[in-house]
Amino acid sequence: MDTTITGKHINHRQLVLLPLPLQGHLSPMLQLANILHSKGFSITILHTSFNSPNPNNYPHFTFLPIPNTCEANIPDKDKQNIVSLFLYINSKFLEPIRECLERLMLEDKGVACLITDAQWFGTQSVADGLKLPRIVHRTSSVSSFLLFAVSPALLDTGCFRPGSYEESRSEALVQGLEPLKVKDLSNFLTSDPEGGCKVLELMAQATKRAQALIWNTFKELEEHDLKALSQDFPGPHFLIGPFHKYFSASSSNLLTPDQASLSWLDKHPPNSVLYVSFGSLVKIKESQFLEIAWGLANSKQPFLWVVRPGSIEGSEWLEPLPYGFLERIVEGRGYIVKWAPQQDVLAHNATGGFWTHNGWNSTLESICEGVPMLCSPSFGDQFPNARYVSDVWKIGVMLDNGFEREEIESAIKRVLVDEEGLELRNKITNIKWKVDRCLKKGGSSYSSLEDLVNYILSF
Ligand code: UDX
């Protein structure tokens, strides 16, 4: 059945989407908006003024900034720390959000439902008060979500010691969620146990009360955890990802991608280059940066490395790099940019490996292009994502000792040069084929999207 909206459905089919103002959350929400728009819904994006999306890239949507009376006052310390940021916006922004929604509901178009990021947990009460269905969009994997949901209880059992994250790196398996380990629990539970637990509990409770969940993942990838998911969160669940494969590279970048990366890749043979990027939030120490640089240099493999300005503590950009690093030490084998067109880089046939922090978008993008990974998780869902990449799907290798030049050099060779790299590539290529199938007519994500459209139309 064609689920695109026509005729009688056309009224009251405005969807209001509320993304979290962080790159890794903004991109999938805007991709979801495009998918739903292609099904005939009209889209309003309710957004904060900081990290706001660029409306010029989406002339087909209505953009509505949340009135920023409260925003100007977000303390800088709260913008830097995601736990504080989540708690802050989920208290101070709720009243202006309620007012915006109320206004939209009075318009001719009406509002069919509110779709928010799971971390906008405070909006469940707002939606309840307005009798407006709220659907949660979870931007990460099912496995990491399940781990998040049990984390506060695990912390109570004492199996995870608050304090230093390094001291809490227990190899013990999390019962019922194997092969996840206690050390894969979010490290914000060690740095800020009280705040971290509060955020996770509020997110889980509000998600249980939501009407439904939309996931940027696909059934074949997460089969392992779907039973546990529907036991704990009755749903319905719509697994309709990977979102970024519905349309060509989407332009919700907050930074400008360096297109010259692609012409640099053009000069290299297939599967020869390591792409290195740790997403939009990770910050590293200068000592770690130098270990990365020496690990890359010593591996003797070509690399394209994204070093985000400000991502090295105490530096603006590349100041700590050894003198003559690219020309003299690496002898032209490396290229460093501030931000890359990542999806195109991963799709380029010269890219043979991806050294990633395993943010969920990066992980999915790598899977979709069949590029094996080196895993260096840093916080939050990145740990469980990396565990699945290395231990469940077996499509990458974990760097277990943080950033340490010998281990880096050996892991790069394992992925790019050794036989092991071929095995990883074969496994990930198999999953890539599943992605291609799940999006085609009759495939799992295709069908789930049809179900989602019908579900929203039933409100
Ligand atoms: C954050 C969290 O860190 C992550 O764990 C969570 O799953 C989502 O929110 P982020 O750290 O930015 O996201 O990582 P990720 O989810 O991988 O998203 C990064 C996005 O930026 C990807 O879509 C990637 O393609 C894009 N990117 C990154 C670029 O386009 N160019 C770059 O140079 C680097």
TrEMBL record:
One example of the protein's molecular function in GO is: UDP-glucosyltransferase activity
Under the heading InterPro entries, the entry gives: UDP_glucos_trans
Leader peptide range in chain numbering = none
The record's keywords, sorted A to Z, are: Transferase
Q: Which domain of life is it from?
A: Eukaryota
Coiled coil segments of this chain: none
Q: Which residues cross the membrane?
A: none
Q: Which Pfam families match?
A: UDPGT
Into which family does the record put it? Answer: Belongs to the UDP-glycosyltransferase family.
Task: State the name under which the record lists this protein.
Answer: Uncharacterized protein
Q: Which organism is it from?
A: Ambrosia artemisiifolia
